[in-house]
Amino acid sequence: MIVVGMENKHKLLIIVGSVREGRFGPVVASWVAEQAGAHGGFDVDVVDLATIDIPLELPAASPKYAGDDYPRPVGMAALTSALERADAFIVVTPEYNHSYPASLKAAIDWHFTQWTAKPVAFVSYGGAAGGRHAVLHLENVLTELHAVTMRDGLAFPNYFTAWQDGRPLDPDAPTYAKTVLDQLAWWTGALRSARDAAPYPA
User: Fold this and answer.
1) To 5 degrees, how large is the angle CA 19–CA 22–CA 24?
2) Geometric angle at alpha carbon 126, from 83 and 182, rounded to 5°
3) Where is the NADPH-dependent FMN reductase-like domain positioned along the sequence (predicted)?
4) pLDDT tens digits, residue range 90-145?
5) Which residues are paired to 107 by β-bridges?
6) Nearest-5° Cα angle at 29, 129 to 158
7) What's this model's pTM, rounded to 2 decimal places?
């Protein structure tokens, strides 16, 4: 049996992407955080975009080239710091009009290097499609920022009838979550080792 100490765990940031009134995202994120904690390979943190100041108006300079001098709002400091510390991400997103929320796009666009050469997994929820259209669009955006998007993820169709008391009714959901977390842990370790060995040539 291998015991993983806290110093060896990957720093996983779970992002609640929806800021809509009455959103279901925090419920999903709480369950995902529970699964990630039980997995044992991650030091888990959760950031809720509804608690962050995320303006839509961006500075003229690109965050890719401005680096630490990029003029972000003071209210965004906690998000920026959490993104920088993280070794891996899980984005929890609904599907709005066949895509993902504007809050997520704004949070992504205010940053660049914080995503680079790090793996991103997705947990989506929605109607019949379970948020899959949102994930497809997010994969394109985050690939542009040199993040490594995971093929496998979790999708919860018709979440309004598929969850009860803060948990999915599908008894196999924890097994599916473990598969995603196992793959995410593998990619996180590989990419962290690579970043430690040499700077990523972005």
Assistant:
1) 75
2) 50
3) 11-159
4) 999 999 999 999 999 999 999 999 999 999 999 999 999 999 999 999 999 999 99
5) none
6) 25
7) 0.94
